[in-house]
Structure to design on (797 residues):
């Protein structure tokens, strides 16, 4: 196989989940903090029908100079799955040796709700054989902090740990991206997620 | 100051900085956020939602004629609607600069087709710019307005989904006000009678030559020599534009030279010829049609492009790399497969009630149900299965009319029912309804009025009572409009779609009539931010539905409503109270009275 010239210095991240889970806010905080830190950053998201129960993905690429805004198959350094089955769906995008952060949380899709098929069993086992995975219940952590809505920031914390990015004031980045009334709980959510990583 | 912006935000910013005064658009993915963002500069400029793209472009043309900088923005298929004024405006030219933003959707993330609107620029003979990222989206918006005035032509800014919806860093500048050009009557320029147009056509040709000459030296068209490009035995050159440039850079890196075109109509022939002479092998990397490639081949230059590079669908670096080098990127797979996650009508969607009511009729009576563009197109999927066609904006009523005439004239006992949303009705559905009334058609028209433009993310429209700039305005009265075009008052019925019996009765009565009939379902989109009027008119108090497992026989009839709040288990059917909104459609279909409504 020919070695390809994929901007070796560029890091690729995928945030995948289901419409309404807050992937876009988490991506926004991450990409703006990276830009603030001096990286070239590109973030790509697909809008449209995702509000109506479809799967959503946000892609972030950062480095010295980034060209494509899109992460291709086998290119993601880290995938954060906000929903368990989405980790399975996006596995092929993971770079061999890459890491998947998985929220142990199930949202059945329409065919499952209708009883036509079952939610796949053994996802964690299947993925652990193929990738370096971190699995935890971000939803439970969010609820224990006082709001299920900060689940996305818990996952952001775990992602930042997985990326090993240094020198960014995440606490400030989070506080400046949410309403003042929710700054504390989001900052706590980030720390709780970071400790999982 | 640098800011991370989407391409759409950057286009709006560019328009603002360039002193734009007027903008009009109809929402459509992936273009919608351009005007939504422009509205944040409403202290400096005017912007509006038009009922459709043709109206949007015509209004922008009027603003240009009156001497100010103007834009119209739309998705690719919107340009089909706006093509009529576009082609003739290319003849007359502009007074104030005018940019038409066309946002194409390669890969059809949220569109009914995939079309390469670069062909429009060539066909209409208007100057075209193609940004690759957000910085260029902003810069080219400004450049477009300048070139429009310099060359006396409308300019097309060609965007694609990835340019519209990906964010990259943009350097911000201040707004520069541009004084209006005083109006001077000029019928030779602006009245396109055949006598005038024949003269304009000749002038257009001269303008094309001038624009082409500019394209050959334009800063937007640049050559980049890769650091290792000259070291290789076979010198590789890449001709590319738009987001494809980014994929090409990730594919060839420093091993190739690039001719990156920011201005792609007129095509810079001299520049392409000169570039081609400096390389041994020329690749043309572009999404969708072989637009650049066709020209390169016409110039007699050999190149590698289609079909190695796919001619449909969206590209990415991986696809380009595989195409060029014949390699596959290493990746993991498992045998376990994820279940598809198709979009569905939301829990509490008012369209569901209508479809469930229609199902009851459709079970016993042959129907052709012509559909339209909107969330309700999802009603075509099982278990609802209540939409048979979807072509274009506003097409449901007219195609339903044609179907009904065909059925009736060939003695087929089948009724046509057209299903259209409120915003789509205002877009181009009204003319279709006029067609039915005028030609004494009998197709039943159903207007699903959910008090907002839903699919694109809740934009105001002529029926909602608010403008894009947030002002209160007159609300079009749909029943009064139907009466005004000649429908009998008794044939215009408004129902609550969440009342299944009422909706079914109205539909049955309409189907039985041999006259033009319309049924309007009126209930707000459940995701909408409710207006004061909504709260007054509709009972939107929080509620949930709950299964009484003592009565439930697990018959799955409620599951057949396709509601995502209902979970069909092997042992029992349950309702997720987190997502349930208490619309009660499931309760109404339950034959065992096993679902109760709990109001907070």
């Amino acid at each position: 196989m020919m070695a390809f010239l994929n901007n070796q210095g560029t890091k690729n991240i995928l945030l995948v989940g289901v419409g309404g889970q807050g992937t876009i806010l988490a991506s926004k905080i991450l990409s703006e903090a990276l830009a603030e830190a001096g990286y070239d950053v590109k973030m790509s998201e697909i809008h449209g029908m995702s509000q109506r129960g479809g799967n959503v993905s946000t892609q972030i690429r950062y480095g010295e100079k980034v060209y494509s805004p899109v992460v291709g198959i086998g290119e993601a350094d880290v995938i954060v799955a906000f929903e368990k089955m989405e980790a399975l769906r996006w596995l092929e995008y993971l770079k061999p040796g890459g890491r998947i952060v998985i929220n142990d949380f199930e949202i059945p899709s329409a065919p499952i709700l209708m009883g036509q098929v079952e939610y796949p069993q053994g996802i964690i086992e299947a993925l652990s054989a193929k990738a370096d995975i971190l699995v935890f219940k971000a939803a439970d952590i969010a609820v224990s902090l006082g709001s299920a809505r900060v689940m996305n920031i818990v996952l952001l914390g775990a992602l930042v740990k997985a990326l090993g990015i240094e020198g960014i004031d995440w606490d400030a980045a989070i506080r400046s991206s949410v309403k003042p009334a929710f700054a504390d709980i989001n900052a706590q959510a980030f720390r709780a997620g970071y400790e999982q990583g | 100051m640098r800011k991370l912006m989407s391409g759409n935000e950057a286009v709006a910013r560019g328009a603002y900085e360039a002193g734009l005064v007027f903008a009009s658009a109809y929402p459509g993915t992936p273009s919608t956020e351009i005007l939504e963002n422009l509205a944040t500069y409403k202290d400096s400029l005017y912007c509006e939602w038009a009922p459709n793209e043709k109206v949007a472009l015509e209004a922008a043309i009027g603003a240009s004629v009156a001497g100010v900088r103007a834009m119209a923005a739309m998705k690719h298929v919107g340009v089909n609607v706006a093509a009529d004024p576009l082609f003739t405006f290319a003849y007359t030219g502009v007074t104030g600069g005018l940019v038409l933003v066309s946002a194409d959707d390669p890969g059809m993330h949220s569109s009914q087709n995939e079309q390469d609107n670069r062909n429009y620029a060539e066909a209409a003979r208007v100057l075209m710019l193609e940004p690759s990222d957000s910085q260029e989206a902003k810069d080219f918006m400004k450049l477009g307005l300048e070139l429009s005035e310099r060359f006396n032509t409308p300019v097309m800014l060609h965007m694609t989904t990835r340019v519209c919806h990906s964010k990259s860093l943009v350097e911000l500048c201040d707004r520069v006000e541009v004084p209006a050009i005083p109006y001077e009557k000029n019928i030779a320029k602006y009245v396109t009678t055949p006598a005038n147009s024949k003269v304009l056509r000749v002038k257009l040709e001269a303008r094309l030559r001038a624009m082409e000459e500019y394209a050959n030296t334009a800063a937007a068209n640049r050559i980049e020599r890769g650091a290792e490009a000259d070291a290789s035995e076979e010198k590789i050159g890449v001709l590319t534009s738009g987001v494809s440039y980014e994929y090409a850079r990730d594919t060839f890196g420093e091993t190739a030279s690039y001719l990156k075109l920011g201005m792609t109509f007129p095509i810079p022939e001299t520049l392409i010829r000169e570039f081609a002479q400096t390389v041994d092998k020329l690749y043309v990397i572009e999404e969708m049609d072989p637009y650049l490639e066709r020209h390169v081949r016409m110039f007699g230059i050999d190149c590698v492009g289609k079909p190695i590079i796919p001619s449909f669908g969206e590209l990415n670096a991986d696809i380009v790399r595989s195409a060029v080098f014949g390699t596959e990127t290493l990746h993991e797979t498992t045998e376990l497969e994820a279940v598809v996650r198709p979009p569905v009508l939301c829990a509490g969607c008012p369209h569901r009630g209508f479809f469930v009511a229609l199902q009851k009729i459709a079970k016993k009576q042959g129907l052709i149900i012509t559909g339209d563009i909107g969330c309700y197109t999802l009603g075509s999927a099982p278990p609802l299965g209540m939409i048979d066609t979807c072509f274009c904006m506003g097409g449901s009523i007219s195609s339903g009319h044609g179907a009904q005439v065909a059925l009736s004239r060939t003695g087929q006992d089948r009724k046509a029912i057209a299903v259209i949303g409120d915003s789509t009705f205002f877009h181009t559905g009204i003319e279709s309804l006029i067609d039915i009334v005028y030609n004494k058609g009998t197709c039943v028209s159903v207007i699903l009025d959910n008090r907002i433009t839903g699919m694109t993310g809740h934009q105001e429209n002529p029926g909602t009572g608010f403008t894009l700039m947030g002002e209160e305005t007159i609300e079009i009265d749909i029943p009064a409009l139907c009466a005004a075009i000649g429908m009998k008052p008794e044939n215009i019925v408004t129902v609550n779609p969440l009342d299944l019996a009422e909706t079914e009765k109205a539909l049955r009565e309409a189907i039985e009539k041999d006259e033009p009939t319309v049924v309007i379902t009126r209930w707000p989109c459940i995701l909408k931010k409710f207006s004061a009027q909504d709260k007054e008119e509709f009972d939107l108090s929080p509620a949930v539905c709950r299964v009484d497992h003592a009565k439930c026989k697990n018959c799955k009839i409620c599951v057949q409503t396709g509601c995502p709040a209902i979970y069909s288990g092997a042992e029992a059917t349950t309702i997720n109270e987190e997502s349930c909104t208490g619309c009660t459609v499931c309760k109404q279909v339950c034959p065992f009275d096993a679902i109760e409504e709990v109001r907070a």
About this structure: Chain B has a mean pLDDT of 97. The longest strand of chain B covers residues 98-104.
